[in-house]
Amino acid sequence: MRILVTGSAGFIGFHLARRLLEAGHDVVGVDGFTPYYDRTLKLKRHEILAQSQSFTGCEAMLEDLPALQDIYGEGYDAVYHFAAQAGVRYSLENPRAYVDANLVGTFNLLELMRHKPPAHALMASTSSVYGANASVPFREIDRADHPLTFYAASKKANEEMAHAYGHLFGIPITMLRFFTVYGPWGRPDMALFKFAAALFEGRPLDIYNRGDMRRDFTYIDDLVEAMILLLEKVPPAPSRRQSAPSEIDSLSPTAPWRVVNIGAQTPIALMDFVAAIEAATGLRAACNFMDMQEGDVPLTHADTRLLIQLTGFTPRTTLQDGVNAFIAWYRAYFGL
């Protein structure tokens, strides 16, 4: 297959593109290489992908419609859309970046897919869309109407935009709600990378809500495996359905569109996460206990029954194994 991966120099896009190349697909990757975090890390990811003759890398912002049109050309068999302005906390500082990248950029891609639709588009969303939902575990069929940050609002808007295009133009779209993804080549602004850096540099770890938080940490290889399996699970158009969706299926009644959670379904206490990093590094953490950050939530917990129903796959990497793999990569990358 010929597959477009947006955000291919990002953490998740890189891992997914590498897996697709290993499976024998032709991959076109597009990334804006923005300075939100160290560009060197992004460039090194693309260098690895470029070792395959089946990879074509492009530098462009999705907000740049003429550039995106050139890249999209006559279309693709499938599209994985990960390019976005990431970061819950950064959205408090620079919300306009989320308008440009997440809203305008996604709109541009949807417009191109409207005229040359792929057989399946899989688009990144986030567990942050569940916002103030009190019912856990979070289910795809639950309403998600109370986002707590502009980042979450922009990703929920992406889901609604995609639904409208799916309904109007018949584009089969699966929205992927990610839950705290971690692993080698991860983002420097995320907890595991920040905690590892602090430990190795002898600095205290900033622990929000005084450690009273739990996250559904999802290892990157498990996430990629789920997304590969979901590629073949194309949401059917209403006119082509032979039976009603199951009671847990988020399949739209009016569009070839659904939402799927991808998480480990095992929330981990933040201090247990710190303990796993200590075990992997052999270092003892000093902790700076702080209040909850604005817009944050104390718990995320994915209901993954729909993922299992569609693919038969359950994430299998233990937290300690995943943290060990990250720390091994971190040591090698920084020469420690």
For the structure shown, list the relevant keywords.
alpha/beta; Rossmann fold; UDP-galactose 4-epimerase, domain 1; 2 domains; two-stranded parallel ribbon; 13 strands; globular
Summarize the helices and strands and which ones pair or pack:
Layout: E1 2-6, H1 11-22, E2 26-31, H2 39-49, E3 55-59, H3 65-72, E4 78-81, H4 90-93, H5 95-115, E5 120-126, H6 150-169, E6 173-178, E7 181-182, H7 191-201, E8 205-207, E9 214-215, E10 218-219, H8 220-231, E11 257-262, E12 268-269, H9 270-281, E13 287-289, H10 305-311, H11 319-334
Parallel strand pairs: 1-2, 1-4, 2-3, 4-5, 5-6, 6-11, 7-10, 8-13
Antiparallel strand pairs: 9-12
Helix pairs in contact: 1-2, 1-8, 3-5, 5-6, 7-9, 9-11
